């Protein structure tokens, strides 16, 4: 990515990774130029392994050669290191705590349950299905009537934390019968609104791509 | 532990031996913030107040500030830094140092409690695996600590120290179940544990290793583990 001003940012990522997508969206929202390096997760680069020796995962942000790891930590770092850019977290301490809490919930629950959904063979996984429906309803409760999770702050930290998983919603329906439009219609509408933002549509996987990807994974795992 | 009604309008729902609750107690003490301490007897069941304050996870600690709940220990500690900016902060000021502190506190969260639990819950091969992991975790933290007095480095006692200190009374139990010595595997961590244990905010928030060991015994009985 060409940079008029070089602020020394490099993002090691895999376009597949919802966690990496969060970082790409954040960088775009903040208008921060950066070098993008696509990692082949089957053949990780030396730079990646050196930068993240503990987890050996993407995303990794390098700022003037120093590494920052874990997507939500990267997002907060961008807010704090670039205070003149559009902030992702709100200013009020209580609202910040809520945004962090729900982003942590997304990490623990959406990703965790989603992974269980597509790893297991056989009949529709009733417990995981039910759990995912519950998770989506809970998130919908938090969204309420707001346009974005960020509320008055607008599209923010929690929106970015969740939106890469929203393109999985169609797959939840197609493969596991979790109909998001029925179970959590406000959430489905929120997802559509997010996709109207260029920072999101350019960086998340389309629902079709996610569906293809999951289809491939299931073939590889011998699941039909 | 403060138990008088507070002028800062803070209430902590907690469980005496919880390392996660203790992080918050340490932070409140470091900041000299008065608060009401409410012991939730988790072994007897969860109170309505707890279930209403944390309907999502139904867990302690819960900090109530003017009645509004904040959940998850590390989020609570950051909240205290931000809501009470005139008190000593646990996170450093520099953005990069803050990112590092958050990373290492998150590492402690992801690794220590789960691995420790597997050490005392499991037997045979799975226990041996947990033991190997625990040694790896301690060595990794030792490398991060290096020759610093505290994980906070120039900042002094900080976020990662507060995050990890509550696990120090659990070392004795990990040692007994895992048959190793922290002082041999990670001597700098052992020395840090001793230093940190002398700090007033930590000393008054933690319980003795013997009490923790006995508590594990109670849990094992409850789970029907020999």
Sequence-ordered SSE layout with sheet pairings:
The complex is a heterodimer of chains A (224) and B (226).
Chain A (H helix, E strand, L loop, with lengths): L8 E5 L4 H12 L5 E4 L7 H6 L8 E4 L2 E4 L1 H11 L11 H27 L6 H18 L13 H10 L2 H8 L3 H4 L1 H11 L2 H4 L5 H14 L4
Parallel strand pairs in A: 1-2
Antiparallel strand pairs in A: 1-3, 3-4
Chain B lengths: L9 E5 L4 H12 L5 E4 L8 H6 L8 E4 L2 E4 L1 H11 L11 H27 L2 H22 L13 H6 L6 H8 L3 H4 L1 H12 L1 H4 L5 H15 L3
Parallel strand pairs in B: 1-2
Antiparallel strand pairs in B: 1-3, 3-4
Describe this structure in words.
The complex is a heterodimer of chains A (224) and B (226). Chain A is an alpha+beta fold and 224 residues long. Helix content of chain A is 56%, strand content 8%. Chain A has eleven helices and four strands; from the N terminus they run βαβαββααααααααα. A four-stranded mixed sheet of chain A has the order 2-1-3-4, with helices on one face. In chain A, α1 (18-29) packs across α6 (157-166) and α4 packs antiparallel against α5. The N and C termini of chain A lie far apart (40 Å). The mean pLDDT of chain A is 91. Chain B has 226 residues and is α+β, with helices and mostly antiparallel strands. In chain B, 56% of the residues lie in helices and 8% in strands. Chain B has eleven helices and four strands, in the order βαβαββααααααααα. In chain B, α1 runs parallel beside α3 and α4 packs antiparallel against α5. Chain B is globular, with a radius of gyration of 17 Å. The two termini of chain B are 34 Å apart. Residues 1-6 of chain B have low confidence and may be disordered. Chain A binds chain B through residues 54, 63, 66, 68-70, 73-74, 76-77, 80-81, 93-94, 96-97, 100-101, 104-105, 138, and chain B through 56, 65, 68, 70-72, 75-76, 78-79, 82-83, 95-96, 98-99, 102-103, 106-107, 140.
């Amino acid at each position: 990515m060409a940079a008029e001003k070089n602020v020394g940012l490099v993002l090691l990522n895999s376009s597949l990774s919802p966690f990496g997508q969060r970082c790409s969206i954040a960088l775009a929202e903040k208008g921060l130029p950066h070098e993008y390096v696509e990692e082949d997760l089957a053949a990780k680069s030396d730079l990646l392994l050196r930068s993240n020796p503990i987890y050996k995962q993407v995303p990794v942000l390098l700022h003037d050669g120093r590494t920052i790891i874990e997507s939500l930590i990267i997002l907060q770092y961008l807010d704090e290191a670039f205070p003149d850019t559009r902030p992702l977290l709100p200013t009020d301490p209580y609202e910040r705590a809520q945004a962090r809490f729900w982003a942590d919930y997304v990490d623990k629950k959406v990703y965790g349950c989603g992974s269980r959904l597509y790893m297991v063979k056989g009949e529709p996984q009733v417990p995981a299905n039910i759990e995912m429906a519950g998770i989506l309803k809970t998130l919908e409760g938090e969204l309420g009537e707001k346009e974005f999770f960020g509320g008055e702050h607008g599209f923010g930290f929690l929106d970015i934390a969740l939106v890469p998983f929203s393109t999985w919603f169609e797959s939840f329906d197609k493969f596991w019968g979790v109909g998001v439009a029925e179970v959590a219609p406000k959430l489905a509408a929120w997802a559509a609104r997010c996709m109207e933002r260029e920072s999101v549509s350019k960086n998340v996987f389309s629902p079709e791509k996610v569906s293809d990807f999951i289809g491939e994974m299931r073939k590889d795992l011998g699941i039909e | 532990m403060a138990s008088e009604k507070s002028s800062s309008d803070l209430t902590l729902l907690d469980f005496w031996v919880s390392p996660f609750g203790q992080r918050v107690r340490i932070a409140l003490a470091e900041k000299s913030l008065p608060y009401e301490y409410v012991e939730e007897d988790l072994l007897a069941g969860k109170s309505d107040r707890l279930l209403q304050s944390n309907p999502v996870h139904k867990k302690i600690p819960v900090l109530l500030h003017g009645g509004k709940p904040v959940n998850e220990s590390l989020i609570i500690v950051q909240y205290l830094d931000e809501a009470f900016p005139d008190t000593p902060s646990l996170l450093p000021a520099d953005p990069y140092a803050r990112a590092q502190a958050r990373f290492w506190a998150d590492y402690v969260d992801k690794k220590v409690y789960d691995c420790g639990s597997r050490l005392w819950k499991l037997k045979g091969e799975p226990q041996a695996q947990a033991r190997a992991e625990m040694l790896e975790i301690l060595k990794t933290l030792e490398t991060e600590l290096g020759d610093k007095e505290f994980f906070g480095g120039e900042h002094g006692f900080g976020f990662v120290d507060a995050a990890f200190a509550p696990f120090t009374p659990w070392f004795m139990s990990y040692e007994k179940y895992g048959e190793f010595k922290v002082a041999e595997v990670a001597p700098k961590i052992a020395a840090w544990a001793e230093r940190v244990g002398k700090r007033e905010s930590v000393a008054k928030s933690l319980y003795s290793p013997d009490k923790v060991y006995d508590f594990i015994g109670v849990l094992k009985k409850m789970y029907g583990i020999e």
